[in-house]
Amino acid sequence: MQIAKAITGNLLSGILGRVVGSIGPLVVVPLMIRAWGMAVYGEWLIVTAIPAYIMMAPDFGLAGAVVNRMAFLTAQGDEQEAVYLYRSSWLVLLCAACTFVGIGWGVAWLVDWRIFGVKTLPHATATAVIGWSCMQIFVAQQGFLLSGIYRSAGQNPRWSLMVSIGSALSLAAGAAALTFGAMPLQCLLTQLATQFLWFCVLCRDSRRVMPAFTLSLHGVSFQRVRAYIVPGLGHAGMPLVNALQNQGVLLVLGVVLGSASVGAFQTMRVVVNGIKSILGQLSTAIAMEVPALLGQAKSQLIQRILVRNTQIGFLVVIPGILFMSAEGGRIFRWWLGPNAPYDAAVIAILLASLLPYVVGASFAVLLQAGNQIHFAILPLIGTALVSVAAVGLGGRIGGLTGAALGVVAWECCTAAMLAAITCSRFQHRFADYLSQWVDGRSFLRDVQNQVGRATRRLSAKPTNA
Where, per UniProt, does this protein localize (predicted)? Predict the structure, then answer.
């Protein structure tokens, strides 16, 4: 099946990036704690959480909507319109991002960061870290827009590989800087320089993939971009919801429990985020192909793919929960030393939050690919705000265990809302998904078919030679 081959290619090409995303924190976090101490590491997490909110405004999800539309237009044979849309959105995003980078510096200078538990880092250092972090996000946003070129050319695996290499280089640069005793600002600038240089390489490579996608003012029109602002808000909404859960939790815990507790909580979340990174690679590989499938009106195939995504996610998460429950303490002591901030109850609760996450992530793929995610944003933002408040209240009452319970509640509410909205927008029945999730025989048949095809291709190669 062609779509299975495409998804497999996307998945394999992105393995390096997910390995970097999973292993990177395992390498960098101990280096940061040893170089700076737990308190400064916690303050670093608090300060770098702010740019995620500031730099959401200039993108407002436009890049996500435009990238999907570029692939859709190219699949229908309208490459020229895709080129004009790319140029128009690039100009709008560039102007907006430059404005908000300046706003980020101003906000950082005016805020008294002691409110959030930042007491060790000097105010000037915290300001500089926030400002340069805004620049780092700006470079990443410009790079993401280039993914539309690769999708339009059917070169998703190449895009994933290029991004993975860039992430690995940035990680290596940061780890090297920490090894030589770099402080927070020095570490950030080292990674930013590496990221910018690789962005230049990515720009040059995209020209080789599709030479027609050049940057110029020819065909630029705000009217083209305006049509994707509302769908774009949906794409901006999901990062906002995630920021509320991830960075918002850190800010609230900084106020309630202090920076040292923030460092401990985030260190334990590294394990959960590593598993999320692995699951995210499969969802990303699928999301790259769904816009084209929607253009071809293959609804049943899309539903079947989403079901398989959820089933594979369960197969990853459940063994992970069992393994960490048995060996988590030993792993943390080996990783961070005898004084590792390990709490078995907190780890177990955070790992349990991955089960509803798997369900919600599968439905989010279809909503985002179909530019329908904006219908889910307001309910999800409301739920996220309540959940952040619950994390703060739980942290005040029950410490880190109470905070972890707030995370589980958020994931459950998110999964339920995404499932309900997806079924409503695409006329799917949730009962159909549920029946297929528990249908192990169908899943095994698909696995056997894919293994059989792969085996036949491998056995045919020597004959063809």
Answer: Cell membrane
Question: Residue 371, by phi and psi: left (phi above 0), alpha (psi -120 to 50) or beta?
Answer: left
Collapsing DSSP states into helix, strand and coil, what is residue 228? coil
Q: Which of 452, 450, 416, 442 is nearest to 307 (CA)?
A: 442
Please name the residue ranges forming H helices in 111-155.
Answer: 123-152
Phi, psi dihedrals of residue 37, rounded to the nearest 5°: 95, 160
- Rounded Cα gap, residues 139 and 127, in angstroms: 19
Residue 110 three-state SS: helix
For 8-26, write each residue's pLDDT tens digit: 555 555 555 566 666 777 7
Residue 16: left (phi > 0), alpha (psi -120 to 50), or beta?
alpha
Nearest to 65 by CA among 304, 284, 227: 227
Distance, CA of 262 to CA of 311 (rounded, Å)? 33
Q: Residue 166's closest CA among 14, 368, 319?
A: 14
Enumerate the H helices of 257-353 as residue ranges. Answer: 259-287, 290-295, 299-336, 344-352
Tokens 């630029």 belong to: 220
> What's the distance, CA 283 to chain centroid?
10
Angstrom CA distances, 418 to 291, 297, 372, stand at 18, 21, 11
Sign of CA dihedral 78, 225, 362, 16: positive
Side-chain half-sphere CA neighbours of 420 within 13 A: 11
Contacts with 181 (C-beta within 8 Å, 6 or more apart), sequence order: 35
Buried b (16+ CB within 10 A) or exposed e, 163-193: bbbbbbbbbebbbebbeeebbbbebbbbbbe
Give the model confidence (pLDDT) of 94-152 as tens digits: 888 888 788 878 878 888 878 877 888 888 888 898 888 888 888 888 888 888 788 77
Which distant-in-sequence residues (6+ apart) come within 8 Å of 247 by Cβ? 49, 50, 52, 53
